[in-house]
Amino acid sequence: MSGFGERPRELKWYHAGPILFGDWGTSRLYVLGLAFAFNGRASFWMVAAMSLVLIAVGWCYTIACRLFPDGGGVYSSAQQRSQLLAVFGGLLLCADYVVTASLSCLEAFHYLGIKDYTILGILPVDAALAALGILAIGAVNVLGPTKTGTAAMIVAMATVVFTLIIGVACLPYLGNMVVESPFKEGPGRAWVGFTEIILALSGVEAIANMTGVMVQPVGRTAKRAILPVMTEIVLLNLILCAAMLTLADDVLYRLDPETGGLVPAHTGDMIKVIAETYVGPAFAAASGVCFAALLFSAVNTAVGALVSVLFMLSRDRELPEAFGRLNRFGMPKLPLVIAAVVPAVVVVVFPYVESLGGLYAIGIVGAIGINLGSIATNRALDIRRGERILMAGVTLLLIAIEITIVFDKPDARSFALVVLAAGLSARLGTMAIHPAVPLGQLTRRGYVISGVVLTLAVLFVEIAFHDTLGGFAVSAVLVCVLAGASYKVQQFRPEILAYRSRRVEVELGPDGKPLETRPKRLMMVPGGYKPKARVMVATQGNPRLLKFAFEEAKNRHAELQILFLRHLAVTPMGLVEPPKLDEDEDALKLFEQVREQAKKEGVPIRLLYGVARDIPDAILDMAVTHGADLLMLGATRRGTLWKAMKGDVISGVAEQLPESVGLLLVA
């Protein structure tokens, strides 16, 4: 066994809906404040217009989920049009997840009442705490995802309840809403104000990444998950925005001590202020804690999603192999470091909601635009004419918004350009140095060095000249050069995907040339007797367990089956190749030790390797498939908290093990 196995389709619509709300619905907690910050009392019309976009995009994603039932989101859809376009979409999605983690964690502390304080008058306290919070969540994820799905669902549902109560309490006062025309400063300013709240779309991409585990038919399941969430978001956004505009100016504004002018006072915690006004301070405090919990959950989701994208790109040979290496708990090591450190740095560099909002928008708009545009222009897909027209129209709107963000938000375009340059450089180097690519050493080094130099050049230009159109033009050209080089080397992608490394040992003849080449690994080693039974032991190298297993196999005259399961704790987006035994140094080392011990003990052995998300299920499957008469497991010393967070493998196996297979626990 060496693979994921068939992914169980267990996600029902009433499970997917709360998960989607935890991503998509979270945007409300900062969109209303941003809407007022950029549009003032004209924000109701902007939120209303954005609601129409939300409905259109939500409907488009019901189509996307139907067409791509195996998940993957923008990467899967764009891959059918252009591999390079798929990489662009994946990198923009990475940019989106980075800022999701940064903004969500910052807003969580705002809803807890921590804001407007600085450290030595330089670094805002909320930004510092947000950075530490992201790093802490990343550290927890070193152990792999915890069994907190139920808790996250409860928090999401509690958020809906709190928001509904606030919305109902506001209804009698909506007639007092004070609204201004969005065209007060001209249509151009109105359009820019509209683009400022486009991050209301953030989170919708999550549903497209769930389809691989949804119950069939996926299209119906996805639609039943999307439509209720979309309806709740649209209706309550409008009600809460109207309630916001009933508040007095002395609530919505504060005096800026530096400029002496009025500035928005509650960009980061607007819904909490509405709750305090129309329900009460105690309720507002309780709702603030609930909203903060939802935002922390969104941080955890964003970190996991970023790890998944980077892992997927690595397994698809688009990023270096180092991005696919797992720790002992099944988490990709390097992607997890990036997913924790980069958002923490971003929130320190951009410590305000307004600046993070701009960074956020450019990634999510680009990713959604590429996704819908790829589907709309793909004639091979079974789409009705009206659906294709809708997707094409939404794509054109998103392109216009993206162009506006590029020219209106220098920090956002700098961030996107640096992410694209770094990703394309890594892709170029990954392909150029791959042994399947027929290039000379000088050419390989040239590609790698060029990628690094061009990326550093983009970084320098964006630091020194990020607020100038000239700097943007230079960086854009450099990124295009990287993309062109990456596209040129991409011609060898079929050879890269077909390549399978094999570890071999070579005997040399007298002339120093290979005399014989044979596979190094033997997965079955005969013993000194004919086996009468089969004993399976699941282990990653416990010496006491292995010693006892060899003794038990000898006493029973049994074949000893050594099962090494590599836990894959992250769920890749879409269909990707699982890690192989060739890449697992721990498993290779253990199997070599076991071979030597088997020869010494005279015990026949069978070596089994697998990669699994559900360890108990994989152990059960292997025990039944290979006809084990006895299954041996090592008893864990981990405590109650660990078992509550990560689950208990022994209990999971014991509950489902067939009666024909004995279970022996070794302390």
Can you describe this structure?
- The chain has 667 residues and is α/β, with parallel strands linked by helices.
- The protein folds into 2 domains: 13-408, Amino acid/polyamine transporter I, CATH 1.20.1740.10; 524-666, Rossmann fold, CATH 3.40.50.620.
- The protein contains 25 helices and 12 strands.
- It has a 6-stranded mixed beta sheet, with helices on both faces. Strands 1-2 form a two-stranded antiparallel ribbon. Strands 3-4 form a two-stranded antiparallel sheet.
- Strand 5 and strand 6 (514-519) form a beta hairpin.
- Helix 5 packs antiparallel against helix 15 (353-376).
- The longest helix has 35 residues, at 281-315.
Keywords:
667 residues; alpha/beta; Amino acid/polyamine transporter I; Rossmann fold; 2 domains; six-stranded mixed sheet; globular
Low-confidence stretches: 1-5, 501-519
**Major β-sheet profile:** 6 strands, mixed
Could you tell me the CATH topology label of the largest domain.
Amino acid/polyamine transporter I
Strand line-up of the largest beta sheet? 7-10-9-8-11-12
CATH class of the largest domain: Mainly Alpha
Strand content: 5-15%
Assigned CATH superfamily of the largest domain: Amino acid/polyamine transporter I
Coarse morphology: globular
When the domains are counted, the total is 2
CATH architecture of the largest domain: Up-down Bundle
Mean pLDDT: 88
Distance between the termini: 27 Å
Domain UspA: 534-661
Main location: membrane
Protein name: UspA domain-containing protein
Pfam family, one: Usp
